[in-house]
Amino acid sequence: MTYAITLIPGDGIGPEITDATVRALEATGLSFAWDRQLGGMAAVDAHGDPLPDATIDSIRRTGVALKGPLTTPVGGGYRSVNVALRREFQLFANVRPARTIVPGGRYEDIDIVLVRENLEGLYVGVEHFVPVGDDPRAVAESLAIVTRVGSERIIRYAFEYALKHGRKKVTTVHKANILKMVSGLFLEVHRQVAAEYAGRIEANDLIIDNCAMQLVLRPEQFDVIVTTNMFGDILSDEISGLVGGLGLAPGANIGSKAAIFEAVHGSAPDIAGKGVANPSALMLAAAVMLDHLGEQDHGIRLRSAVEQAIVADKVRTRDLGGSASTREFGDAVVARLR
């Protein structure tokens, strides 16, 4: 079987880490038909639009995209490509796995998956100014929109993810003690959904500030975390910090009709073209993509190859304390897969 995948190399270091990732994916023995499309500044330069219709049409056709980091142009009214993609394809679930790979860090044996609601909350961007007296911008207001349908969809996704991947526990994070309606509804739905999985998946809930503290004090207590948009945005980066930073952080945005897999770090224009970027995060995102395609065995192989290249072979890019080039790291992963 050949998998048709939309490939968006992206900006900055994106093309370099994308090429390394494509080589690793092809080394698994699976067959891919890559539809290369543009996004971000590369698309602006070519088409005057950071998200051209051709890219959207490709994702609509394939249903799966692998995306390098994109740069949203500053000013000029350009929309965020990541936000636009989430809305265009209703990618309601942002999934961020984090595992300890490099030994000797502050934390050992961390294995946490953060599931973040992607389309609601404060990030819907419903905000406005309220004039007071002569000041038209005296007060700024923003609406946090949380729906029962959206809450159930993401919380149920987290529980189903736990079942599918052999996870034991789902923790729902909220601020229902203060935000009694928007967080209260999310917590109410959590309790209803959790009751359906009683005896199969353990469930609990934590207030956001307590969760942030517990992640630092005792991260081993967490398995799958599910939360609303802004809380998930913050916690996912905190969790990435526990395992060494965004250089080892894959991400997936999942909807009912499309899924986009990405490295969550930026385009790092300061090191673009120097051949020193770490492709690990995008390779790990590609492993999540293989899981999504039903190729879990190959996903495990790719994930293991990345980890073995770093740990056993000690082939590390400079952000991990080594001196390997992007190409050399890619070669080490490919060698592990063959």
Explain the layout of strands and helices.
Blueprint (H helix, E strand, L loop, with lengths): L1 E7 L5 H14 L3 E6 L4 H7 L5 H10 L1 E4 L13 H8 L4 E7 L11 E7 L9 E6 L2 E8 L5 H17 L4 E6 L7 H15 L5 E6 H10 L6 E4 L1 H14 L7 E5 L4 E5 L16 H13 L3 H16 L14 H12 L1
Parallel strand pairs: 1-2, 1-3, 3-12, 5-10, 8-9, 8-10
Antiparallel strand pairs: 4-5, 4-11, 6-7, 11-12
Helix pairs in contact: 1-9, 1-11, 5-6, 7-8, 9-10, 10-11
Features:
10-stranded mixed sheet; alpha/beta; 338 residues
What is the overall number of helices?
11
Number of domains: 2
Overall pLDDT metric: 95
CATH C-level category of the largest domain: Alpha Beta
- Write the CATH homologous superfamily of the largest domain: Isopropylmalate Dehydrogenase
**Any idea what the radius of gyration is?**
20 Å
Helix content: 40-55%
Account of the protein in words:
The chain has 338 residues and is α/β, with parallel strands linked by helices. It has 2 domains: 1-95 and 244-338, Isopropylmalate Dehydrogenase (3-Layer(aba) Sandwich), CATH 3.40.718.10; 111-242, 3-Layer(aba) Sandwich (Isopropylmalate Dehydrogenase), CATH 3.40.718. The protein is built from 11 helices and 12 strands. It has helices spanning 14-27, 41-47, 53-62, 81-88, 148-164, 182-196, 208-217, 229-242, 280-292, 296-311, 326-337; strands at residues 2-8, 31-36, 64-67, 93-99, 111-117, 127-132, 135-142, 169-174, 202-207, 224-227, 250-254, 259-263. The strands form 2 sheets. Strands 2-1-3-12-11-4-5-10-8-9 form a 10-stranded mixed beta sheet, sandwiched between helices. Strands 6-7 form a two-stranded antiparallel sheet. Strand 11 and strand 12 form a beta hairpin. Helix 1 crosses helix 9 (280-292) and helix 7 (208-217) packs parallel to helix 8 (229-242). The chain is globular.
